[in-house]
## 1
Amino acid sequence: MTDSQLLLTGHASVSRRRFLKVTGTGVTGASLLTMLQARQAPAQIKGTTLRILQWSHFIPAYDAWYDKFAKEWGDKNGVKVRVDHIPHLDIPARMAAEFAAGAGHDIIYNGSSILTRLYYKNLVDLTDVADTAGKKYGGWIPAAKSLVEVEGRWHGLPIFYILAPMLYRKDLFDANNLKYPDTWELARVSARTLKPKGHPTGIALSQCADANLFWRSMFFSFGGTEADPSGANPTLDSKELREFLKFAKAIFDEGMTPEVFSWDDASDNRYLASGVACWVHDAISAYRTTEDTNPPVFKNTFLALEPQGLPGKRVSVAAPNVWMVWKFSKNQQAAKEFLAHLIDNDLEGMVQSRGYNMPYLNDRYKKPMPVIGTDPKLQILQDFPKIVAFYGYPGPSTTPIQEIVNTFIFPDMVTRVCRGKESLEDSIKWGVGEYRRIYAKHKQA
Amino acid sequence: MTVSSQRGGPDAASARVAAVSVTARARPSGWFRTQTSRRLGFGYLLLAPAILYVLLLVGVPFLFSLYLAMSDANVGDPVASFVGLENFRAALESDVFYLALRNSILFTVVSAVLKGFLGTTLAFLLLQPFWGRKFIRGLVVIPFTLPISISVLSWKWMYDSQFSVINWFLSRIGLIGAYGSPDWPVWLGQPYWAIAACILVNVWRTFPFSAIVLLAGFTSVPNEVLDAARVDGTTFMQRFRHVVVPMIAPILLIGFLFDTVFTLSDLSIVYLLTQGGPANATKILPVLAYQVGIQSGALGRGAAISLFLFPLLLPLMILMLRNLRRREI
């Protein structure tokens, strides 16, 4: 008797097949939960192979640690682990190829461009692992689920994100009686004052990840939004957008040079490390680069929280990193086990990345945090989780947003305004038009 | 002449030939045993790997990309529906597409002209006898043999807005001001400089290939022919235009054909240097197709954008191959 027949006849009897299905699912789920809670790998994964596709981290020491960490977990659980590292920009192409072939790695990493919504039908549901970790470590920070949750289920595990605070030259600020950049207006005043003295500022206005991230931080801090909370409709066209763009044009004209049109993700690191920049808005890689290459400048480089746009409004757009498991993986259980183990050790990952990797779990923010909690200049980073957002704010990371990010519509609109070759309204018309066109295409599909 | 032939019908001899051929057709097994059929069969057998190769590696992907371009396929969903020409219409609705199309044509044409000029010059130089010629001939192909990512990243460093070795050199010799002055070029930041910078890398990388192709052509021109032209009192340019070029035209055309296809479909240089920025000033069709089709997952629209290269290339290919065939005849 089928399920539909049961419904039609109204019989409460249970077929053998249904009984086995229900009890089987229950037993598997319960044992997995028990194992996840007890952090004990099941015997079934012994003798299997786990293949992980991973980015090449900006901090090479992290990769060395990660490879060793994975191998040690494999040795302990009798799993042969293979970790492959590729540049993060190559991951979307590799993911498409693996999906088309129905073969490849078991665990796949996404950085910056999070493709959960594109592939979720083909990704393993990791809600159980996420729930267990959430319960164990005080829940996930609010922005986490926007990256991985589709139709109420988590199809990926966010393990760390990369912050971008303000990094400013305290010596230059003090020498010119400037207040530290707690608001974007103060940041503008400092750039306007210091540019004529040979210390301009810069935020990339090119087609790179930094441009996508940092101009959005400024826009969102001015009260702007990119999509509605459901993520279904773009909300770019607003008076906040106009205010933000006027401000962006002013800060570019007064405090930056055309160099920013050519920048890549590492240019601002070099700009700060060379001693030219009065401030940059960047990941702490800029801080580390300066530490390694220019100690006198490093001594005077301090960090600040994301500046306010509107009073009290701070939104910091961070670069997310997420791990997923393919449905075609023949070793899903080992993949889940490994990811749960990785979450348990995310603080060690933070140490190995020299404070670069920020965790998504609330309990991890108990002060002092490793690395950043012990460095007085970095302590401010501990206050970021409440203001962290990702692309598509305040909505989730949807497929139209991914296309908008990958085709650099937002920074291009800012670039057009800053170049001054067309009116503000023309630039807005172009940007808003591109948003609507892309949203319409995805709705149609 | 028979009556029937006078009326325009077949004569008796023709009828006999027809009857013979009908008889021959009626016994195909006999024909297959003939020497001619065996030679033909053997010929096709030898050709089969090449035909199979073209069908599998060119024909199938092309048909597959046509299918993708007319569907709403995305990277995460194996099931796609037919959408007709919708993806092409979507591409034509975007300003960025027109910019990419313009830049693709500009990139290919300017590169081809520069490579033709530099390649010819280099080929003539390498033709002259001088000490270390073999060594120099080996050196010039280095840009072509280097992994593209490494060479482009080196150029990226040379174009850096702050540490550009080109700028520092120009500044030292007094052609431009110091770093921070208004005349300090930002190679990858100004729209025209940025596209010129991308073209320069493409030319630097592939003009040695043009030179080698031309060199091979020049060495195949018999000295007697050139000597005869010299005796007739021709200048260097006259010999080049009226003797050398017509003789090596097939090589030139094939080289040009390859170069056009490679340049028009080149993704790496622009992607690694600028990703199409600033504000799409260097965006070309392959980069846009990659960003939309692979990075954003809209395979159908990505395939449609990349297929716009096809009508650009097809007439050019037909004209050149027809020209080549005429010359062979």
Note: Chain A has two domains: 45-162+318-393, 166-317+407-444.
## 2
Amino acid sequence: MEKFLTVLDSASDALTSGFLITAFVSAAAVLCGAILGVVFGLALTYGGRLASLPFRIVVDVVRGTPVLVLILATYYMPSGIGFSPGPITAGLVALTVFCAAHVGETLRGALRAIPSAQTDAASAIGLTFGQTLSYVLMPQAIRQIAPNFVNTAVEIVKASSLLSAIGVGELLLTTQEVIGRSYLTMEFYALCGLLYLLLNLGIGAGGWWLERRFRIQ
Amino acid sequence: MGYVLDFGAVLRGLDNLMSGLAVGLAMGAAGLIVGSVIGIMAAFAAIFGGKFLQTLVRLYVGFIRNVPILVLALFAFFALPQYGIRFSNTTTFAAVLAIYAGAYLTESFRAAILVIPKGIFEAGRSIGLTGTGIALWITLPIAVRNALPSLGNNFISLFKDTSIAASSTSPPAPCWPSRYASSNVASRNSEAAHGEISHRPRLRV
């Protein structure tokens, strides 16, 4: 225990920066993924057969392959055409696309579930498609997908641990470096798991609060 | 440009890739079966058990669902052996998958039990079944049938998670990127062709 505290003291800066990188990469991926996911969801719902096809393919491929493969592919495959993204860029792109595919698919389901009579009513009072979307459909759809979105955010934080495989200095890789120096395997993996747990419980609590705050009475 | 795709490397390694695929499928299936047993027991404990059991299940599910499976796998591969708990690579990873899946399946089975109409239990009691009898002959078969669709989804995500075995068997070392970046060029093609085995870890599962 004493040795653990000594090592923890000397490694706390590294672990803090690892934790911050994990938080930053996850937050950026969730944010960009949510925006791109809305585009995906709209294209899948209103794109028609031809325009939605490329989005359908991307969503199915991303949902059907492991995140680790997606991350390794975005990191290594571009170098084949003479373009090599840095590990953080590649990881961010992979996690963003992963997030977008999941958000897009759930948003499609939520939009489909809204009765079409509402769209008819909206056009009867003269709303344009954009207005229908922003005043009628999206407010309902977003409330509908909120719990699922929180789950996706937790999945992204967990998936960000896989970025250690391409050398992003996030929480897990930092932990492994500390373990490599100190051999305190049990202690530091437990600490690492605890930090992920706290981060994700925080996301869960935040999501729960937002859901309650924006619930329609 | 100037990069020539060479899928011949993929074809030459096809046997190897296929055996890797079989290992992945087997670990996924083992994880699902053992995970289902854990999930059923935990779901029964969460619904019919006392305060203590309910808290225990809630802690288990809350902990496992919020920690990355890679951390769990590394813990099982590198921390537990220090305390004398050591199995073969495949067994260890299948056990991690089972514990991981168990947490998700607990929720599935809990939902599957909760949607069973109360009248069925009353019917069971009226024909003289005991509490255990009702659980075994009424709740269980209906719950398993209700949970089947989510079992399918769970198997898909478990099979995807078996790819993580590839990075969890590497020893913790700060030199990961350099090692992988220098790996052979053809790995890029096999990665594209095959979703399952993306690179060759130092220790094979």
Note: Chain B has ten helices and no strands.
